[in-house]
Amino acid sequence: MARPRAAARTVEHPDPAAVSLQQVLEALVDPVRRMIVSQLARADGEKSCGTFDTPVSTSTLTHHSNVLREAGVIRQYYVGTTKMNTLRADELEERFPGLLSSVVAASAVEP
Hints:
Helices cover 47% and strands 14% of the residues. The protein has helices spanning 21-28, 31-43, 58-70, 89-95, 99-109; strands at residues 46-48, 74-79, 82-87. A three-stranded antiparallel β-sheet has the order 1-3-2. A hairpin with a 2-residue loop joins β2 and β3. It is globular.
């Protein structure tokens, strides 16, 4: 019999004011991470971890998601046992105007 959890699962996220442009750019330089960001932008909301279409294993996808979360690009949270992902688009737009939308637009025309 499984033991009940004492508290809900939570995921730590950086304050947007504490995130540097360097961190965000380093997170977005990887093509798999840009795929994740582009898919979230097209989803116009949230996606669960298991629904991303990427050419990497689940454990590698987890690594890429962690990099994006730690750079303040995405927010992750649990709904039951499912980890959900959403872009922090409004927060990034306020901190670095035009950056995220430019990256998503450029990724859309990239082969």
